[in-house]
């Protein structure tokens, strides 16, 4: 008996390229880098980042709740609101116990941790906010989204470092196929561009140090890449069984056809140098989708702009997809938003399928000569994409791949 199709019916995103899916797509499609010098990071060896533009919360009830929410939660709420509208859903009318929420997040309320600890050291423990714990808990993005939208089905936070957003999609698909929910809001959020977090990645040697040209610092698959650029973002996809979407008269944007995961079990932070274990996640996702590697038209790569990580992924892509599907990485434009990245890139992959257009990898004229991949650079490429793979890899050896296909 065949399994039901899982449809993507709504998209929402807030990224350094803008507030909203269309603004994000416009700038990524143009290969427009969002990295800028960051005043909050002044004094660090790496003092630039990719931040989400400030946006107003217009709903009065929501404004009254901001005091208890860290920025990563506020970003998630904005993305969820857009996704629900895009899916033509009304939380006042849906069957609340059948609506789930699963959001990936790597670090939670990092800004709250730093600010409240500094206040305690400076002014004493009695000055710490009574909301500090719910503000910093990583699960509170999912909790606050469920609260704001009256989603009373299962909810949780997925934490697999930089694969968290993709893990959330896989979990949501499992819930739908198991019949636990009719609708799931799935995605990722992260707002951890703070001095402590940046200093930690800096000391680990993971960040680019191109202080003289931050706009060009994120260079996925380039021969002269030297590390990633920290970013913040949130993205949410509305998932539902295709028959459920059809019953309410909504056409899917795409289908989430398969998901696969693996764990390197090799090193806390370094990937397998040839991507051999990440390959298992891709193979599992394709098998789950009932597809072969040769069916794939496009790969949205994890490709953070670290020499080691990019080389491992390029090796894996060249080995698995010998027919040469197009490859791109949004991180040249958007930086690396950690736990949100997999969800942001899933949104972009859905749009690539819908619009038959592959965005370029910003800041790269051509891939490193060692990499046997068809990297889209300089300008967007018109291409019919029926099947696409989106990869996400995280510290701890977490590998997650999702297969999206045309509806």
From TrEMBL:
Q: Would I find Transferase among this entry's keywords? A: yes
Every copy of the Ketosynthase family 3 (KS3) domain together lies at: 3-406
Give the SUPFAM superfamilies listed for this entry: Thiolase-like
PROSITE patterns associated with the record: KS3_1 (PS00606), KS3_2 (PS52004)
Does the record carry Acyltransferase as a key word?
Answer: yes
Q: Which Pfam families match?
A: ketoacyl-synt, Ketoacyl-synt_C
* Keyword annotations: Acyltransferase, Transferase
What family does the Swiss-Prot or TrEMBL record give for this protein? Belongs to the thiolase-like superfamily. Beta-ketoacyl-ACP synthases family.
- What's the protein name? Beta-ketoacyl-[acyl-carrier-protein] synthase family protein
Task: Please give the organism.
Answer: Streptomyces macrosporus
């Amino acid at each position: 008996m065949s399994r039901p199709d899982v449809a993507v019916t709504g998209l929402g995103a807030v990224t350094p390229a803008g507030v909203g899916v269309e603004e994000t797509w416009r700038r990524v499609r143009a290969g427009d880098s969002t990295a800028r010098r960051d005043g909050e990071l002044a004094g660090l060896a790496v003092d630039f980042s990719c931040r989400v533009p400030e946006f107003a919360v217009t709903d009065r009830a929501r404004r009254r709740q901001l005091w208890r929410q860290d920025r990563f939660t506020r970003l998630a709420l904005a993305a969820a609101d857009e996704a629900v509208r895009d899916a033509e859903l009304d939380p006042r009318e849906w069957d609340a116990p059948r609506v789930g929420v699963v959001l990936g997040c790597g670090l939670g309320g990092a800004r709250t941790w730093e600010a409240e600890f500094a206040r305690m050291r400076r002014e004493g423990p009695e000055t710490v906010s009574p909301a500090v714990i719910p503000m910093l808990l990583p699960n509170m993005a999912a909790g606050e989204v469920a609260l704001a939208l009256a989603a009373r089905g299962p909810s949780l936070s997925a934490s697999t470092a930089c694969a968290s957003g993709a893990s959330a999609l896989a979990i949501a698909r499992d819930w739908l196929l198991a019949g636990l929910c009719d609708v799931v809001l799935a995605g990722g959020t992260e707002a951890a561009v703070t001095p402590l977090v940046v200093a930690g990645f800096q000391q680990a040697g993971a960040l680019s140090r191109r202080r003289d040209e931050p706009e060009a610092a994120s260079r996925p698959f380039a021969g002269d890449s030297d590390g990633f650029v920290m970013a913040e973002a949130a993205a949410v996809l509305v998932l539902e069984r295709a028959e459920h979407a059809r019953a309410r008269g909504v056409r899917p944007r795409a289908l989430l056809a398969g998901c696969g995961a693996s764990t390197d079990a090799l090193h806390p932070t370094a990937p397998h140098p040839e991507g051999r274990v990440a390959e298992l996640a891709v193979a599992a996702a394709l098998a789950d989708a009932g597809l072969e590697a040769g069916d794939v038209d496009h790969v949205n790569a994890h490709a953070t702009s670290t020499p080691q990580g990019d080389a491992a992924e390029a090796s894996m892509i060249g080995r698995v997809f010998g027919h040469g599907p197009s490859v791109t990485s949004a991180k040249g434009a958007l930086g690396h938003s950690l736990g949100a990245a997999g969800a942001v890139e899933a949104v972009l992959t859905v749009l690539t399928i819908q619009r038959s257009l592959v965005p370029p990898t910003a800041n790269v004229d051509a891939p490193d000569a060692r990499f046997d991949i068809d990297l889209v650079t300089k300008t967007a490429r018109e291409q019919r994409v029926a099947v696409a793979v989106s990869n996400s890899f995280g510290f701890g050896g977490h590998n997650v791949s999702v297969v999206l296909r045309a509806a």
